[in-house]
Design a protein that fits this description.
By secondary structure, the chain is of the alpha+beta class. Helix content is 15%, strand content 43%. It has one domain: OB fold (Dihydrolipoamide Acetyltransferase, E2P).
Length: 168
């Protein structure tokens, strides 16, 4: 339901509905994280947990952005390196590097991020539509954007597109 409310708010924002700026209600929550200097986010409804880096078992014949699998509470979880998925250079893992485990349509997956930032409210007045230009929104990974307190733009990812192998 939250996703539908957010989609409706983005559509109204695109249409120039000026009531949105005045109506600053909370539509949901996102967990934000860093990949390099950019802040990304994922809607909280998809997040299961955050775990530290652990041994990842390599799996042959998978795309390069899939680093392998880990065992989380007796469940095998594939691990995706977001840096590689987005075409960014790999960097050595740091003590802040972690895995965010997600659940989407009863499928669990882990994503490696540089660091986790915060859990934030999504306010109606802070939402912007994702860029439609393919050069900016490669593979349509960005579902929408929110404006942070300091004016920075946080890119909220579309979990379905992120996990879709056809988008690679």
């Amino acid at each position: 339901m939250t996703n539908d409310v957010i989609k409706e708010a983005v559509a109204k924002q695109q249409s120039g509905d000026r009531k949105l700026a005045a109506d600053n209600s909370i539509l949901g929550k996102v967990m934000t994280f860093n990949i390099g200097d950019q802040i990304y986010g994922i809607e909280i409804q998809y997040i299961l947990e955050i775990i530290g880096m652990s041994h990842i078992t390599k799996v042959p014949h998978v795309p390069d952005y899939i680093k392998g699998i880990i065992n989380v509470r007796s469940k095998v979880v594939p691990i995706v390196d977001i840096r590689t998925r987005f075409g960014k250079p790999e960097i050595p893992y740091t003590p802040r590097t972690c895995i965010i485990t997600l659940d989407f349509n009863d499928t669990s997956i882990g994503i490696i991020v540089d660091s986790v930032e915060d859990v934030e409210d999504i306010h109606t007045g802070d939402i912007s539509a994702a860029p439609e230009n393919k050069n900016v929104n490669v593979n349509d990974f960005i579902q929408y954007m929110i404006r942070g307190e300091n004016g920075e733009t946080k890119l909220i990812l579309d979990v379905a597109k992120l996990l879709d192998e056809q988008e690679a």
